[in-house]
Amino acid sequence: xxxxxxxxxxxxxxxxxxxxxxxxxxxxxxxxxxxxxxxxxxxxxxxxxxxxxxxxxxxxxxxxxxxxxxxxxxxxxxxxxxxxxxxxxxxxxxxxxxxxxxxxxxxxxxxxxxxxxxxxxxxxxxxxxxxxxxxxxxxxxxxxxx
Amino acid sequence: xxxxxxxxxxxxxxxxxxxxxxxxxxxxxxxxxxxxxxxxxxxxxxxxxxxxxxxxxxxxxxxxxxxxxxxxxxxxxxxxxxxxxxxxxxxxxxxxxxxxxxxxxxxxxxxxxxxxxxxxxxxxxxxxxxxxxxxxxxxxxxxxxxxxxxxxxxxxxxxxxxxxxxxxxxxxxxxxxxxxxxxxxxxxxxxxxxxxxxxxxxxxxxxxxxxxxxxxxxxxxxxxxxxxxxxxxxxxxxxxxxxxxxxxxxxxxxxxxxxxxxxxxxxxxxxxxxxxxxxxxxxxxxxxxxxxxxxxxxxxxxxxxxxxxxxxxxxxxxxxxxxxxxxxxxxxxxxxxxxxxxxxxxxxxxxxxxxxxxxxxxxxxxxxxxxxxxxxxxxxxxxxxxxxxxxxxxxxxxxxxxxxxxxxxxxxxxxxxxxxxxxxxxxxxxxxxxxxxxxxxxxxxxxxxxxxxxxxxxxxxxxxxxxxxxxxxxxxxxxxxxxxxxxxxxxxxxxxxx
Lengths: 146, 498
Known about the structure:
- The complex is a heterodimer.
- Chain A is an all-alpha fold.
- Helices cover 75% and strands 0% of the residues of chain A.
- In chain A, helix 1 runs antiparallel to helix 2, helix 3 packs antiparallel against helix 4 and helix 4 (92-106) packs antiparallel against helix 5.
- The N and C termini of chain A lie far apart (49 Å).
- In chain B, strand 1 (180-181) and strand 2 form a beta hairpin.
- A two-stranded antiparallel ribbon of chain B has the order 1-2.
- By secondary structure, chain B is mainly α.
- The model of chain B has no long low-confidence stretch (mean pLDDT 84).
- Chain B is 75% helix and 1% strand.
- The chains are: A mainly alpha, B mainly alpha.
- Chains A and B meet through helix 1, helix 2, helix 3, helix 4 and helix 5 of A and helix 9, helix 10, helix 18, helix 19 and helix 20 of B.
């Protein structure tokens, strides 16, 4: 992706955010709307300035060197997004062990024995610290504990 | 003085000292691990500290913050891999010294320089923060509004070529701060009917996301690009570590100048450690024109190492005295203070002096502990840490982030917030948008809006209140100078070029 494309995308996001936030702030009572309303205008203006500047950049067409697409970030995000509801369903310990193994596999770690040992060990240690020592009610899981 | 002595007695009690020792050791480990740093570690640790005795909680955090940037110098010197961003410059002469067979001396110089810089900054914190806080007690809403403007303008002023992007990030941070109930009317804004957002976006999960989760994503991308974990060369042999008297005498001017640079930059919100290390290295180069820097010059190690540690405690001055974090890491202390039910700023010294002075003295003692601990652990860290596969490390950090976010409010919603801000942090990194102005603006946003409203109520709607009050007027004038300085520099540069 070129610098110009990156800046243009950011600028478009800022303009969209500014306009929609200004419109939404209009639904607030006067005092509550003033600060965010003005900020929204500033954000939209900054977006326009960035857009203008991105087309004047001399190195705008130069592409940044990226060897890998950020697909792995999407995969990890999806893994965590699946993990969050799984926390309540199957409980912290099994969900976390599975998540850790999944992350290691996604990143290309192939030593299954170490992956299993590390994930089980660190999950149990974290569970003991947070649940037992600090009293944090980490989910036990609706499936097993109702 | 009485408070300082009491705090010394507190810190030196065996249990508190042990926790501080653990913090310093942990800081060294995370600093030495490429991909981890003090900010990520504090983000992960804060949820753990909330149920601890405040003395233990803050000593743990102070210990980590004190030693992490020094820890970064160990792999920088031995393996030419900076453990943290603040040790990038140390690689230049530090690793060159290793290549010349002076690894031990380089480590020794790094240790003594870090201790010198760290102690200087803890003294600055010890004497400047209470004085500034006592002065700040006289501040009214107009002064607080001007202070918020000053804090944000320093970030813009220090942006270098990145002024527009810093302003954009500040505006986004201020916008995020408006989510939740309006400070004047209590009207819910941008909450989309989600009750968890009524009090704004949860601060600690947001920080965990921005620093912890974003770093997991970065690490993952790095592993994929390299096609596996980073391979590590053999650790070089380390001989004598401590510099002799002659060397200490030779490095003293560099330590003093670099520490002053680090102290000043630490106090300015948003200026950052990177600026300090480059400025310190630059002054060392200028002060020693006869030496060829980059070939293993001891001053080339001493300058950045003294400067980065001199930033550490100094960056706590604006937070503790005014409630304005000096950098991202000190913003995490803000979160830690908040979850302990404390309010950073001038009232901290009035309402909880025992905690305020405990933190200050903790930085001093932490720096003293860092020297011997660093020398003992240095070689061990370089040998062991690099054998941990990055894939394993990334998964452990991810789980600590998730568990920590959940623990802050025992809420799954916090984990979603963490994930969302993890993605935002990652995107910010890719777009080269800095994170510290975002945090600063989020912290200052509510203060700015509330004090603006209160000032206008006091002045019956006249904006002149900000200029008729001397402190506020001076701060606004300083803000203006900070903002226009980069533009003036640019115009001058263009003129001299033409």
